[in-house]
Request: fold
Amino acid sequence: MRRRSILGTSLAMVAAMGLTACGGGGDSGASKTVRITLTNHVWTDNIKKALPEFEKQTGLKAEITQLGEDQLSDQYNVKLNAGSSDIDVMMYRPLQEGRLFAKNKYLADLSEQVKASKDWDFGDFQAGPVEATTYEGKPVGVPIITEQEVLYYRKDLLDKAGLSAPPKTLDELKAAAAKIKAAEPDVAGFVARTGKSAAVTQFSSFLYSFGGDFVDGSGKAAVNSAAAKQAYAYYGGLIKDSGPANVSTDMSWSEAMAIFTQGKAAFYTEANSLYKNATDPAKSKVADQVGFAPFPAGPSGSKPYNIPAWALGINANSENTANAWKFIEWATGKAQTLAQQKSGVPGARTSVWANPEGTSTFPKDMAEAIAASTKDGVGHDRPQVVKVAESREIVGQPIVDAITGKDAAAAADTANAAFQKFLDDEAK
Reply:
């Protein structure tokens, strides 16, 4: 879940010719060996075990380079910047470096491939993840791992407070959190990320559910819209009034999760991908009391993010694009996506979530919460810009200000001016 910017600003300066379409004359140096760069992840471990099937079906050889996130960053920084052709398939994070990669033409245009692969069925992929792997109307990646924001809660504390069900709205969440904190002085009614950068992704679902977004329809900064100001005030106020005593304003998921798993909070909004931290008895003191529910609805409904944490793309400089696509087509097909999901890796295909086999390994209430999230989920959980880390620092400041009791509306106005300058600078 670490979401660090993996490339320096030098990449943004690279000149480029344009999105390169796969196929055509780009495979003059085609090889029977497909060179695939992946990061350390359960998805990668699973796909490596299944590679003999791919090689038997296609007659190709898959050569895997598996790296930690920092090493992956370093390799992409060097090789993509240099226009290297010795990477065919690349695993990347659409919302962290995807826009940078697409802008600099590192990712091949997959339009022809996704249309031609009828049985593979591009229409089966959820709208949110597809949005995040699309650049200027063209698909440049295929989502492989998704995340949605859901509500974690303590069943025992709800029962004790006389609450028959988890809150369905943000108003109900606020009331329930306040009620439990008043009755249980040593327990926070609510906990969530508080660090100005780390909190942005989880705050985003609140922002969307209040009717806001980071930019408006014309691409202008919108973090001081009426909806955004309400969202900042709500999120910060909920932590200030019902959060842990002497709450830190530098918490990422690990610190917030620790508070919840130590039995010190009733409600927690977080990415579903982290749920086993809360349900594993070895990690959680309240493992048998944890429940999950869809993200509570705000004035604009329940609009959590539904994003691809990772995707597969083809290096635009690869000379083996046709075979690279064969790997992606196989690795993201319905059979592999189902197998991955059964191992606990949430996929981006609608059909797999509709298949009881695809949800069999998830807690029933978690599967239901995810299903609800994919209906109206938003395809980004942070500003969609090139310099993601810098933008998060800007739009996250009002969160910290609201938590510490400062004027959230004034903080939003200040942040909006800074964010607009950032957008203007980036557009130059």
Remarks:
- The longest helix spans residues 408-427.
- The beta strands are 33-39, 61-67, 89-92, 134-135, 138-139, 142-154, 188-191, 265-271, 290-293, 306-314.
- The chain has 18 helices and ten strands.
- Confidence is low (pLDDT under 50) at residues 1-26.
